[in-house]
Design goal:
heterodimer; A: mainly alpha; 2 strands; B: alpha/beta; 6-stranded mixed beta sheet
C-alpha cells in the first residue's frame, strides 16, 4: 500500500509524466531520423526555444494568478520596434541597454493591463485583447515602414556568444547559447520568486481564491501590477532575443508566436483556471513543443501541419491534467476511507 | 471587572442606506468562554462580527474594549494585532496550496516578512496543529482533503498568531455529525487554553452542546445574553421568532393501497447496495445516515442524476427505467439538491427566471414563442402560494434570505406538478423560523397526495416530520422504523 501510494503520487505529478513522455517521444523520432538525438540538434532546440521560453515564463505567472494575457506578443513587437529604432537614432547603446530598455518599455505596457485588471476588475482576456489591438494598431499606424532589415552588429554578436563550447566528432563547434543562458537566469529568478517570497505565495493565493487572498491581507493591487508588468518585461526581453537571433525587426512575426507560447505553458501543467504551475513544467513544455515542431521538419512533414499538431497538443494536455486531477481526488478518497 | 472579558462592545449601531442593521447592541465575551450568537437571517449577526473583525466601521458613539484597550472603532490590523481571527463560513482557504502553506499564511503576512521557506511554514503549521490537537498531512493540497479537514486547516490558521478570540461563522453548516463532534473537541481544547470563541450558528442542539452563554439578536437588537442553563429549545425559538412554535410530530394518515414508488434491490458500485423500499401517496419518508453513507447518492439515483447499476424501480406498479434526468422528470419525480446555492438556483437571475426554468415547455404561446403573460402569471402565483417574501419577482435570488431561497427552489420544482418530491437536506443553512415553514410546506404537500422523500442528518427533524425513517449505513438501509417507534436519543445513538 505504502509503495503504491508513492508511485501513484509521483505519476500524478505533471512534470515527471511530461519528462517521461519527452524521452519516449525523442526515442521514437530518433528511430525514424537519427539526426534528431544529436548534440547539434538538441542545442539548436535549446537555442531556438529560448524566445518562446522567455515569454512562457511571463504567461505562466499570469495563468497561475488565474488570468490570461494575450497582449504579450503585441508588447514584444512594440518594445522591439521602439528600442531598436531609438538606440539607432541616438547612435549609442549596446546589447545590455537594449535588453534593459525593451524590458522597461514592456513592463510599462504591462502596467496598463494591470491597472485595468485591478482597478475595474475586468476579465483579463478582454482587457488584454483590447490592449493588444491598441498597442499593435498604434505601432502600425505611427510607423509607415515597420520593417527594419539592418540592425547594429551587437545584436548578432550576442546571439553568437555561447558557454561551455565544445567540438563534436563531426567537427562542428557547439555550446550553450547566450540566449539559453539568459532564459535560465530568468527561470531561476522566477523560481526563487515563486518559491521563497511572499509575493510568489500571493500569486498562487490569488489564483486559488482571490477573496481569501484579500481577507488574508495580501496587497492585491501590488501583486497584480507585478504580474502584468512582469509578463511585459519578459516580452521585452524576448523581443531583443528575437532581434539578436533573426537580425531584423518585423511587425508581424512575433505576433504569430502566441499560440506556441500558450501551448507550451499549458503543456507544462499550468492550470488554465489558475492556482498551479511550475517553472520546471513550463520549461519542459517549451522544449516539448520545440521537439515536436523540430521533429516534424526532420520527418519531412510540411510546415502547414504545425498549427494542427500544436492545436491537438493543447487540447490533449488540458484533457490529461483534468484526468490527473480527478484521479488524485479519488485516490485521496480511497485513502480517507 | 473588565479583566474577565476579552472583548466588551458598547452602543454598537450601524445602518446601511438608512436601514438600521444594528441598534445599540452591547456584547461582552468572557475570556475562555464559548459564546453563541444566534438570530434569524438579517438579524445583524454578520454585521456584528464584521465590526469585531474591523471590516465594518460602527456608527458614532460606539465603544469597544479589547484586552483592556479601548477603541471607538477597530481596523482589520487592530483586530489582528489584538488576536481576533474570523473563520468565515466559506473557510477562505487556498485550495491549490498545501496544508502547511495555508496554515502559515496569516502569520507570515502579519509579520510583514518578504520571504519565506517551506521549512518555516512547516514549523508554524506543526505548532498550530499541536495547539488544536490534531494531525494532518502537511504537504497535501487543501482542495484534495475533505471539508471537515479543511475546517481544521482554517482553525489552525486562526490560532497561529497567539489568538485571544476566534469568531466562527456557522462552522458546522457543511459538516456531518461525526465531524461536528470533532470540531467541538477542538473548540473545547481551545477553550481550555483560555481562547474565547464566538460561535455563530442556528442549530439549537449544537448550541446546547457547546455554548457557555448565548446572545440572541433580532432585528439588529440584542434580546439579551443568557447562561445556557437558563435556556430551553422552546425558549430560544420563542425569543428568536417572537412566537411559540408548536412542535408536534406528524401523524396524518396516508393511503397504503398502492405504492407510488417501489424500489427493489437498487445497487450502484461503491455507493449503495440492495436498497428496497416503497413510498405511498401522501407519505413522508425520512432518509438519514452519516455523510458518506450513500444517502445523497441513493436519492440522486432515483431522479436519474446518478443512475443505479442494477435493481428495479416501479412507479404506480409499472416497471420504469430511470437512466437520466429526463426519465426521472417523465416519471413525475423532482429532486431538490442539497447545495441549493450551487446546484439549485441561478443566483444572479431573478426569482421569475428561476421559477420558470423547469417549465419552458408549458409557457410557450401558440406562436411557439415564450409568452411573457404566462410567465408573469405563473411566477406571481408561485410567489403567493409559497409566501416568498419579496417586493418583486424581478429581484435576483441572491438577495433573498436563505429560507426564501429554499422556497424558490421548491416552488420551481413544484411548478412541474411532480408526484414524488425528493428533498436533499432541505433545511441545511436555514434559520429556525424559516425551517419551521419549510416543514409546514412539506406537510402540506404530503397532504395533497405527493410522496415525499427527504434526506436529513438531524434526528429531531426526521422524527417529527416523517412517517417512516430509513437509516443508511455504508450504502445499505440497515433499519426501517416508523417515527412513533423511535425516540430521538435512540436514533442519535444508531446514527453515530
Amino acid at each position: 500500500m505504502q509503495k503504491r501510494q508513492i508511485t501513484s503520487k509521483f505519476l500524478f505529478r505533471h512534470e515527471p509524466m511530461l519528462f517521461i513522455v519527452m524521452i519516449i517521444f525523442a526515442i521514437i523520432v530518433n528511430s525514424i531520423n537519427a539526426a534528431f538525438l544529436t548534440p547539434e540538434n538538441m542545442f539548436d532546440i535549446l537555442k531556438t526555444s529560448s524566445i518562446t521560453g522567455m515569454m512562457a515564463l511571463g504567461v505562466m505567472i499570469v495563468m497561475i494568478s488565474g488570468g490570461i494575457d494575450i497582449s504579450f506578443t503585441a508588447i514584444a513587437t512594440v518594445s522591439m520596434q521602439v528600442t531598436v529604432r531609438f538606440l539607432m537614432a541616438i547612435d549609442k547603446g549596446n546589447i545590455v541597454t537594449a535588453f534593459l530598455l525593451a524590458g522597461l518599455i514592456g513592463a510599462l505596457m504591462g502596467c496598463i493591463n494591470g491597472f485595468f485588471v485591478y482597478r475595474f476588475k475586468l476579465p483579463t482576456l478582454i482587457v488584454t485583447l483590447g490592449t493588444s489591438s491598441i498597442f499593435h494598431g498604434l505601432l502600425l499606424s505611427v510607423l509607415r515602414i515597420p520593417h527594419l532589415y539592418s540592425v547594429p552588429g551587437y545584436y548578432f554578436d550576442f546571439s553568437r556568444m555561447s558557454l561551455f563550447t565544445f567540438t563534436t566528432a563531426g567537427g562542428t563547434e557547439i555550446g550553450l547559447s547566450s540566449l539559453t543562458v539568459l532564459l535560465f537566469v530568468m527561470a531561476l529568478l522566477v523560481w526563487l520568486i515563486l518559491r521563497f517570497t511572499m509575493l510568489g505565495r500571493g500569486i498562487y493565493a490569488i489564483g486559488g481564491n482571490i477573496e481569501a487572498a484579500k481577507r488574508a491581507g495580501f496587497n492585491i493591487m501590488l501583486i497584480q501590477m507585478f504580474i502584468y508588468s512582469f509578463i511585459g518585461f519578459t516580452a521585452g526581453l524576448a523581443s531583443i532575443e528575437y532581434v539578436a537571433m533573426f537580425r531584423h525587426v518585423h511587425p508581424f512575426n512575433m505576433m504569430n508566436m502566441m499560440l506556441n507560447v500558450i501551448a507550451a505553458v499549458v503543456l507544462g501543467g499550468t492550470s488554465f483556471s489558475g492556482g498551479s504551475g511550475t517553472v520546471i513544467g513550463t520549461l519542459l513544455g517549451v522544449w516539448m513543443i520545440y521537439m515536436i515542431t523540430n521533429s516534424l521538419i526532420l520527418m519531412g512533414v510540411p510546415s502547414e501541419w504545425e498549427p494542427v499538431v500544436i492545436g491537438f497538443v493543447i487540447i490533449f494536455s488540458i484533457g490529461i491534467s483534468a484526468m490527473q486531477k480527478s484521479l488524485r481526488k479519488t485516490e485521496v478518497k480511497i485513502i480517507e476511507n | 471587572m473588565d479583566e474577565d472579558y476579552c472583548i466588551v462592545l458598547r452602543n454598537i449601531s450601524k445602518s446601511y442606506a438608512g436601514v438600521e442593521a444594528l441598534d445599540n447592541v452591547d456584547l461582552s465575551i468572557r475570556k475562555g468562554e464559548v459564546h453563541c450568537l444566534i438570530g434569524e437571517n438579517g438579524s445583524g449577526k454578520s454585521t456584528l462580527i464584521k465590526i469585531i473583525a474591523g471590516v465594518v466601521t460602527p456608527s458614532r458613539g460606539a465603544n469597544i474594549t479589547v484586552n483592556g484597550k479601548s477603541y471607538t472603532k477597530l481596523t482589520p490590523i487592530d483586530a489582528i494585532h489584538q488576536g481576533i481571527q474570523i473563520i468565515y463560513q466559506d473557510l477562505s482557504l487556498f485550495p491549490n496550496m498545501t496544508v502547511a502553506e495555508n496554515i502559515a499564511m496569516n502569520q507570515l503576512l502579519e509579520s510583514g516578512k518578504k520571504t519565506s521557506t517551506h521549512r518555516q511554514m512547516e514549523v508554524i503549521a506543526k505548532k498550530a496543529l499541536q495547539t488544536i490537537g490534531i494531525d494532518l498531512p502537511l504537504d497535501a493540497l487543501v482542495g484534495d482533503i475533505p471539508i471537515a479537514k479543511q475546517q481544521c486547516v482554517a482553525i489552525s490558521r486562526a490560532v497561529t498568531c497567539g489568538e485571544s478570540l476566534i469568531i466562527m461563522d456557522e462552522p458546522t453548516s457543511s459538516l456531518g455529525k461525526k465531524d461536528i463532534e470533532y470540531l467541538f473537541t477542538i473548540i473545547r481544547t481551545l477553550k481550555s487554553q483560555g481562547i474565547s470563541i464566538l460561535f455563530v450558528g442556528h442549530k439549537l442542539n449544537e448550541i446546547f452542546e457547546i455554548a457557555d452563554r448565548v446572545t440572541i439578536l433580532k432585528d439588529g437588537k440584542n434580546l439579551g445574553t443568557h447562561e445556557i442553563q437558563e435556556l430551553t429549545h422552546e425558549k430560544i425559538i420563542e425569543l428568536m421568532t417572537g412566537r411559540t412554535l408548536a412542535v408536534s410530530s406528524y401523524e396524518r394518515e396516508y393511503s397504503s393501497a398502492e405504492p407510488l414508488l417501489e424500489v427493489r434491490n437498487l445497487s450502484k458500485a461503491f455507493q449503495f447496495k440492495q436498497v428496497s423500499f416503497s413510498l405511498y401517496p401522501g407519505e413522508i419518508i425520512g432518509i438519514t445516515g452519516l455523510v458518506g453513507s450513500g444517502r445523497t447518492e441513493l436519492v440522486s439515483a432515483l431522479f436519474g442524476l446518478n443512475p443505479a447499476d442494477s435493481g428495479e424501480i416501479f412507479i404506480d406498479g409499472k416497471p420504469t427505467t430511470i437512466r437520466n434526468v429526463q426519465d426521472g422528470l417523465e416519471a413525475g419525480i423532482c429532486y431538490v439538491p442539497e447545495d441549493r446555492l450551487t446546484q439549485g438556483l441561478f443566483m444572479n437571475h431573478s426569482i421569475e427566471e428561476n421559477l420558470i426554468v423547469t417549465l419552458f415547455k408549458n409557457l410557450v404561446s401558440r406562436m411557439g414563442l415564450l409568452s411573457t403573460d404566462n410567465i408573469r402569471k405563473t411566477s406571481v402565483s408561485w410567489v403567493d402560494n409559497l409566501a416568498i417574501k419579496t417586493p418583486s419577482v424581478y429581484l435576483p435570488v441572491k438577495q433573498l434570505s436563505g429560507g426564501n431561497q429554499q422556497r424558490v427552489v421548491i416552488a420551481k420544482w413544484l411548478a412541474r406538478n411532480p408526484r414524488i418530491l425528493i428533498l436533499d437536506g432541505p433545511t441545511i443553512g436555514v434559520d429556525v423560523g424559516a425551517k419551521e415553514e419549510i416543514h409546514r410546506i412539506i406537510r402540506d404537500l404530503a397532504a395533497q397526495g405527493l410522496g415525499i422523500i427527504f434526506v436529513s442528518d438531524e434526528a429531531p427533524e426526521v422524527i417529527q416530520h416523517s412517517h417512516r425513517i430509513l437509516l443508511m449505513r455504508e450504502g445499505a438501509i440497515v433499519e426501517s422504523m416508523t417515527s412513533q417507534e423511535v425516540r430521538e436519543t435512540e436514533l442519535l445513538e444508531k446514527l453515530g
